[in-house]
From TrEMBL:
This is Nucleolar complex protein 2 homolog. The keyword Nucleus applies. Residues 1-16, 574-612, 645-666 have a biased composition (Acidic residues). InterPro entries: Noc2. Residues 687-697, 704-713 have a biased composition (Basic residues). Residues 1-21, 105-136, 553-713 are annotated as: Disordered.
Length: 713
């Protein structure tokens, strides 16, 4: 019958031998690259692309058409390694040489070897390759095949070094993706996934190289798409407070800021949308009374977005319309900082104030920072805290510093310790002196300091800690001296306050005089304002205290050093978001007042046991959830320059192409076994039917007419 005839016909077709494929050798690969890089030989370039495609698809279960189109076969790991390494490192040079010379198919009199129009030793890819005469029939199809093979290989790779190696190669070929938008989007999606969620540092950096190159080389409209994807990846990572995410979030923030500089209009559009989202979250928190809304407004994602766009505005304050976002940024940061006036929220408040200081110094936009800082000074009640508050060494201070550096919400038990309040007051003095020093050369400095100095005098009278009173008195003296100097200078001017240019020149002249006088320790006596000198000394003292890992007192401004030593605090602490742990007032402190000269007595046995239990519980919590360290600064532009100078860096040394070849061989060997098993199941259960009642070709029907019949079915 007809079925028996079809089976006999299929059996005859299966016996037909496959078309033989050329086996590639190492010497052939070297010869192809020598010819292509020396004279831009198109035939050699085409052979390289075929070999690279065979290497990328090695071991894959391709359809019949794909297997026939390869025409070459790679049988050893040495050939596989040579094809992959030389292709990924030199293919951009090969295509550049083909563009420059045209190979042996070039027009007569142009590009001939040693001719008059011979190219330079190191040709580069054209910025608009689709307009080149060699693009349509030569480089276009070859580059499309090469890039699609590399993108396919990316989908199969899991090793960090291999991913980094391939991303860097595609970054060099970014100009050729202008006419292959589908491949560009596909590679961009892969690079965004690695950049935002990848674990390897090398792969993440090389993925950023590809994204940056595509943003610059692709046609107009592609950069906003890349920027939007990077902002989404940054927001997803900023949502968590894990310690492992800190370096990645910092690197991503610097990458986004660097990309914003390439197109300020697109950056403004993205920043405006991000700030509108943050404003909606803050408005919901202000209008509603739900703690969930407040936690969302003061969470890592919202704060991370505000820090991102604050860094972008600080990087480009006076260019395009991006600098106009400084005002809404100040409003949002101030609103988030003062949303919940709780002692547990002091780390968040000081973090927002630090961002506001950066924004004010970069954009010269005055932000009223004295009010939220003075609230911290007046909010400390200086009460005796929990049992673990007395005694201890530098480890407690280091734990408190980690909380202020890496968390937004301090644990309730830690907020009741004296070490926590001391660290908050010291950081507040540093930020307050920085804010005042930034405006100490302005003509309106005496009027700007009236309100904060009034509160600072009250703090100096009411604070029971002598060294903090001395800090306040020294700062008051520096402010008074600076205000008197500014008044003396402006007494001789003849312009009105509405003359903005003259006001700016007055401030610039004061800064120039301070710069001529000296820097560092000589600043106080060599022209710098007294407030600026106080800030320089206090900043150095804060750095020394942080390096020492404790809250031991460092003399600032001439006060006598304290001999009390460090007060112990809870280390690290969890970034808790429980509603019950947040106190909206300063009356949550319990215990007796701790006067100036009072010292803690020796703890009893019961107190010691309780202290040990408390420390053990805190240690277990720290082990369960590590603290989020301070985000390091990353110079993205320097990394790009270093990557451009170093062709491959150390990435190539880490690539194990032999393992990649072995995995492909194993996958290729497993395919026939799976096909045989499937064939056995089919023979046992009867012939399978395809759609429309037609028989589906079995796994054995490969090659020749059988393939055509399978495709028709």
């Amino acid at each position: 019958d007809e079925e028996d005839e079809d089976e006999e016909e299929e059996g005859d077709e299966e016996d037909e031998p496959k078309a033989p494929r050329n086996v590639v050798t190492v010497s052939q690969v070297d010869a192809w690259f020598d010819a292509a890089m020396r004279s831009g030989d198109v035939d050699a370039t085409r052979a390289i692309v075929r070999a690279f495609r065979a290497a990328c698809y090695h071991g894959d279960d391709m359809d019949g058409r794909g297997e026939e189109s390869l025409k070459v076969d790679i049988t050893t790991s040495s050939v596989f390694t040579r094809v992959m390494t030389r292709s990924l490192t030199s293919m951009h040079k090969v295509f550049a040489m083909v563009f420059a010379t045209g190979g042996k198919h070039a027009q007569q009199g142009k590009g001939a070897k040693g001719g008059k129009d011979a190219p330079s030793a190191a040709p580069a890819l054209p910025k608009e390759p689709e307009k080149h005469s060699r693009w349509k029939k030569t480089v276009g199809p070859l580059s499309k095949s090469f890039i699609s093979s590399a993108v396919h290989a990316l989908e199969q790779m899991t090793d960090e070094a291999m991913l980094a190696f391939t991303y860097r190669s595609l970054a060099r070929l970014a100009p050729l993706m202008r006419a292959h938008e589908r491949l560009a989007r596909k590679s961009m999606t892969s690079a965004l996934a690695c950049w935002s969620r990848g674990e390897g540092v090398h792969a993440r950096h090389c993925a950023w190289e590809l994204l940056h190159a595509q943003a610059l080389c692709m046609p107009e409209g592609f950069l906003p798409r890349v920027l939007k994807g990077m902002c989404a990846g940054y927001a997803a990572n900023a949502r968590t407070a894990a310690a492992s995410e800190v370096a990645r979030v910092a690197f991503q923030r610097e990458c986004v800021v660097a990309l914003c500089g390439e197109d300020l209009d697109a950056a403004y559009t993205q920043a405006f949308a991000g700030l509108r989202e943050c404003a909606n979250v803050l408005r919901q928190a202000l209008q509603g009374r739900a703690q969930a809304d407040a936690r969302l407004a003061q969470g890592w994602r919202n704060v991370g977005l505000l820090e991102l766009w604050s860094a972008a505005v600080c990087a480009y304050p006076d260019e395009s319309e991006l600098g106009a976002l400084a005002y809404p940024l100040c409003q949002l940061l101030t609103g988030v900082a003062r949303l919940q006036p709780s002692m547990q929220r002091w780390p968040l408040r000081l973090r927002c104030v630090r961002a506001l200081c950066d924004l004010a110094e970069a954009s010269r936009c005055y932000a009223p920072l004295a009010a939220p800082l003075v609230e911290v000074l007046t909010g400390a009640s200086w009460r005796r805290g929990a049992r673990g508050d007395s005694g201890g060494s530098g480890s407690g201070g280091a734990g408190v510093q980690r909380v202020f550096d890496s968390q937004l919400l301090a644990p309730k038990s830690l907020a009741q310790t004296r070490a926590y309040q001391e660290e908050a007051v010291l950081r507040t003095f540093e930020l307050l002196s920085r804010h005042l020093a930034a405006w100490s050369y302005h003509i309106a400095f005496p009027e700007l300091t009236l309100a904060p100095m009034l509160e600072l005098r009250r703090f100096a009278k009411s604070c029971p800690v002598e060294r903090f009173r001395k800090h306040a008195q020294n700062l008051l003296g520096a402010v008074g001296e600076t205000a008197a100097a500014v008044k003396a200078r402006r007494a001789g001017v003849s312009f009105a306050p509405k003359d903005a240019d003259s006001v700016d020149e007055f401030e610039a002249e004061g800064k120039r005089a301070a710069a001529r006088g000296g820097k560092g320790k000589r600043a106080a006596s060599a022209g710098a304002t007294a407030v600026h000198a106080f800030y320089v000394q206090f900043k150095a003292a804060a750095a020394a205290r942080k390096a020492a890992g404790s809250v031991d007192e460092v003399t600032v401004g001439g006060g006598a050093p304290s001999s009390q030593g460090a007060r112990a605090g809870a280390g690290g602490g969890d970034d808790v978001d429980d509603d019950d742990d947040v106190d909206d007032g300063d009356d949550a402190m319990e215990g007796d007042d701790l006067s100036e000269g009072e010292e803690d007595g020796p703890p009893s046995e019961e107190d010691a046991e309780g202290e040990d239990e408390g420390r053990g519980g805190k240690a277990r919590r720290r082990a369960a959830k590590p603290a989020r360290p301070a985000a390091p600064k990353v110079d993205v532009k320097q990394k790009l320059a270093a990557a451009a100078a170093d062709e491959d860096g150390d990435v190539l040394e880490d690539v194990d192409f032999d393992a990649m070849f072995d995995e492909a061989e194993a996958a290729e060997g497993a395919a026939p076994a799976a096909a045989a098993e499937a064939a056995g199941v089919e023979d046992a259960g009867g012939k399978r039917k395809g759609k429309g009642g037609k028989k589906r070709a079995g796994p054995a029907a490969k090659g020749g007419k059988g393939k055509k019949k399978a495709r028709k079915a």
